[in-house]
Design goal:
GO terms for molecular function: zinc ion binding. The protein is mostly helical. It has 3 domains: 19-198; 216-455, no CATH class; 457-499, no CATH class. 57% of the residues lie in helices and 4% in strands. It contains 23 helices and 6 strands. The chain has helices at residues 26-32, 35-44, 56-68, 73-77, 81-87, 95-128, 136-149, 152-171, 179-197, 200-210, 213-219, 225-228, 254-259, 263-266, 270-292, 297-304, 308-321, 325-341, 356-364, 374-383, 422-435, 440-454, 481-491; strands at residues 236-238, 241-243, 389-392, 406-410, 468-469, 477-478. The strands form 3 sheets. It has a two-stranded antiparallel sheet with strand order 1-2. Strands 3-4 form a two-stranded antiparallel sheet. A hairpin with a 2-residue loop joins strand 1 (236-238) and strand 2. Helix 7 (136-149) runs parallel beside helix 9 and helix 7 (136-149) packs parallel to helix 10. It is globular and about 70 Å long. 41% of the residues are buried.
């Protein structure tokens, strides 16, 4: 055998070890107790990561830290928002959730300061000719993209983050002679314009369409066979749900984020229903806060116009199907606010058929609902209200190793608009419809139709009127044998014979 020149044998280059110091290690930077060192770390950390998987432990620890303390000012001062923006679109599983979660926390408690810090950092980077400018624009654009590109749990955090920004805009929408207040005002105006530029209204419509149980099941890879066969096209239909099948299988991490294995504890679909109730409530809050922002009317009308019909259709669907009191308050409050501002026109203003009241009424006629029955809504205020126990994801105390979902919890009132009442918003929406020319008789007829349908049994699959019931448990109804077959993979786990 001929000898081989060792120098000719290709060698695998040795991986350069990552030196852990205050430039490359989160814990080292924080322990240095040096503000400037920490600022440099958070601005440049993304440049030192060769293997992005090494960021999971420090980022999850930072998320837990922020979720458990009352005063987040330290993290504002250390400018960790710079790092979060760079990792927001990371391909590493969990990282987009962790970073969007922290942005939600920071913008919730210190929104104005966060936006001002981003503005200052952008100006400093411009002076030195930096290529990757962290900015208010990057924040809003990345959050909006996250809503379209990521799974349900990340959508929740992005929606809440932007709802926090909307709240800040509303609070700071008055100019003052004080220089600092004027700077804050200018940042608020900038954020307002960026929401239009980033087409956040379109993102809300997207969420109204796809934030549902079927989508969450598909993403978490626990879907029934029929759901897995849905065409891989955006907004594919499955029973009564609209889906984004391109995300199916990409959200298996959600079960661990939400319940840490409690899927097997809660039973089939239960934890999904709890989570989706919270997700849809978060969406409704974002819609409500967005509706309060005072945009330039002409710009808003033009920006929203292509999406108005879908917005009203899917908002009405959620409003009439949800049993969650806060979600109903937010959505009806948003309808009132949008109508007052005149932003929602699907076409020429002189055609009543393009108006919000007309579109709403036409969609209400397709649903069974008593939301225009003021007395019924008043009763819900008394029976439920904001102090009632609801399925929820608590805003405080999250950690990566414990159960996040609560079957029954009291909503943290400091994070919600608890002044909203269904009696008040129902009265306002009813008045809105009457003022637009819809008759009292038509509204009363709508209520009568809802009352008659409420006595009918509904198919567990397609929600149509049903007369056939499961022969075993006699508790679930179907409109056809086809629907019963579709539902059996789910129902068989819960079906018990009647005694």
């Amino acid at each position: 055998m001929m000898g081989v020149d060792p120098s000719m044998i290709p060698r695998t280059p040795k991986k350069k070890k990552l030196e852990l110091d205050a430039r490359t290690c989160l814990f080292c930077a924080l322990e240095s107790d040096d503000i400037q060192v920490c600022k440099e770390f958070f601005l440049n950390y993304h440049k030192h990561i060769g293997n992005e998987d090494v960021i999971l432990t420090p980022i999850s620890s930072l998320t837990e830290m922020m979720s458990s303390i009352d005063d987040l000012q330290k993290f504002v001062d250390l400018e960790c928002i710079n790092m979060l923006l760079m990792f927001l679109k990371s391909p590493v599983r969990y990282i987009p959730f962790y970073t969007s979660r922290m942005i939600d926390l920071l913008t919730r408690d210190r929104c104005g300061l966060i936006l001002m810090k981003l503005k200052e950092t952008e100006e400093e980077q411009q002076k030195i000719g930096s290529e990757n400018l962290v900015s208010v624009k990057m924040l809003i654009e990345n959050l909006t993209q996250l809503i379209h590109e990521m799974t349900c749990v990340e959508k929740r955090e992005a929606l809440l983050s932007i709802s926090n920004i909307c709240k800040f805009i509303v609070q700071e929408d008055t100019l003052d002679e004080d220089l600092y207040v004027e700077n804050v005002y200018q940042v608020a105006q900038r954020a307002k314009n960026l929401l239009l530029e980033a087409k956040f209204f379109k993102s809300l419509v997207h969420c109204l369409k796809v934030l549902n149980i079927s989508q969450l099941k598909g993403e978490a890879n626990i879907a029934e066979p029929a759901l897995k066969k849905v065409p891989k096209t955006l907004y594919a239909k499955y029973n009564d749900d609209c889906l984004d099948p391109l995300k199916f299988g990409r959200g298996v991490h959600q079960e661990k984020v939400l319940s840490r294995g409690a899927y097997n504890v809660f039973g089939d679909e239960t934890y999904l229903r709890y989570a989706m109730t919270d997700f849809q409530r978060s969406l409704a809050k974002a819609i409500y806060r967005f509706s309060l922002v005072k945009f330039d009317k002409e710009k808003a009308v033009n920006a929203f116009k292509p999406f108005v019909k879908d917005f009203v259709e899917y908002l009405t669907k959620l409003l009439t199907q949800t049993k969650d009191y806060p979600t109903m308050c937010y959505l009806m409050g948003a309808l009132e606010s949008f109508n007052e501002k005149g932003y929602l026109q699907s076409g020429p203003v002189d055609d009543i058929k393009n108006s919000l009241p007309y579109l709403l009424f036409e969609n209400l006629k397709k649903q069974s609902t008593n939301i225009l029955n003021v007395e019924a809504m008043k009763k819900m205020d008394t029976t439920y209200g904001w102090a009632y126990s609801y399925p929820m994801l608590p805003e405080r105390g999250w950690n990566p190793n414990s159960l996040w979902i609560k079957e029954k919890g009291t909503l943290e009132k400091e994070y919600h608009e608890t002044h909203l009442r269904l009696e008040t918003v129902s009265t306002a929406v009813r008045a809105m419809l009457l003022k637009s020319g819809i008759s009292e008789e038509s509204l009363n007829e709508l209520e009568k139709s809802a009352q008659s349908q409420s006595t009918q049994t509904i198919c567990a699959v397609c929600k149509k009127a049903a007369s056939k019931k499961c022969a075993n448990c006699k508790a679930v109804y179907y409109c056809s044998a086809d629907c019963q077959k579709k539902h059996w993979s789910v129902h068989k786990k819960l079906c018990k014979p009647t005694k």
